[in-house]
Specification:
Length: 142
Amino acid sequence: MSLFQSIYEVKVPFEDLDPMNIVWHGNYMRYMEHARCQLLSELNYTYMDMKADGFAYPIAKMNVKYIKPAVFEDILCVKVDVISVEPSLDMKYVIYNKATNEKIFEASTMQIGININTGQTVYTPPKGLAEAFLRVNHDEKV
């Protein structure tokens, strides 16, 4: 079950291609990061808000599956779902070609909350993040 979902679109630029004229595999992580940032903006609780609250959420685990290559000027949709926020921020991603609706990539990430002043792991989300999810999912328990 998803606590919140966002879809980010990217038109594959030339500089994202490798010598085989397909998107270099590492660029998918960048697309995921852009999708996460957009999702947090849509929640009205960005990485800068987290930092102001004294928290960071570095990625601790990532699983990826490459299904089909993307090429220059493909328009890709990066669908990101927040699966949980406690004890970790868990997200699932599906990247698909907007024109064909074909799935080309899927992934999941687990981000662990840390107190940026102490470096200690925290197992509950910062108040601002918890409140953001409550605002958009008032019927869901965070």
